[in-house]
Amino acid sequence: MSRIIGVDPGKTGALALIDTQAWTIAITDMPQEPGRGSKVAVSPAGVARAFDAARPDHAFIEDVWSSPQQGVASAFNFGRSLGILEGACASRAILTKVRPQEWKTLTKTPKDKNEARRRAMQVFPCAYDLFARARDDGRAEAALIALFAVLQVTRAAPPRPLKLTDWPAGDR
Asked: In angstroms, what is the C-alpha Rg of the chain?
């Protein structure tokens, strides 16, 4: 049995952990730290603590790139965030990158972020409230990436609906 993390990268992204022995899902917003001014950034220490507490066997992270429409600073910050997440996964030898088209096709997730939230509400009714707001699309996509990962690792769908649980506490 496995503990599998799905990662929607970026400062508004999230981490979702599915435990295939207990058939539970835990979702946490991306760990953040104060940046310059009113900005926030992904916290390297927070990401490390989240991974240490979760003790994942696999981590699937969305393989995305900055957009040409992004400014230089935004593209740099996105790359920094992605690097922190990939480093946390790679240092544990659990990194698998997955293109959006792959996980969205297998999980029947539309491209639209609001539709992705609706899809997550259907697939994970136990976590319905975690996907309720428009800004919860990162949580929804992380959960659906984790589902994609479960389908890839176990080669089977969950045998029963998942139960929502808290993110593991770990040693702090």
From this structure: 15
Distance of CA 118 to the CA centre of its chain: 16
pLDDT of residue 58: 97
10 Å CB burial of residue 99 (0-12, 13-18, 19+) is: exposed
pTM of the model: 0.93
pLDDT in tens, 40-58: 889 999 999 999 999 999 9
What does 96-147 look like in DSSP terms, one character per residue?
A: EEE-HHHHHHHTT--SSHHHHHHHHHHH-GGGGGGG-SGGGHHHHHHHHHHH
3-state helix, strand, coil in the chain (%, to 5): 45, 20, 35
Chain mean position to CA 68: 23
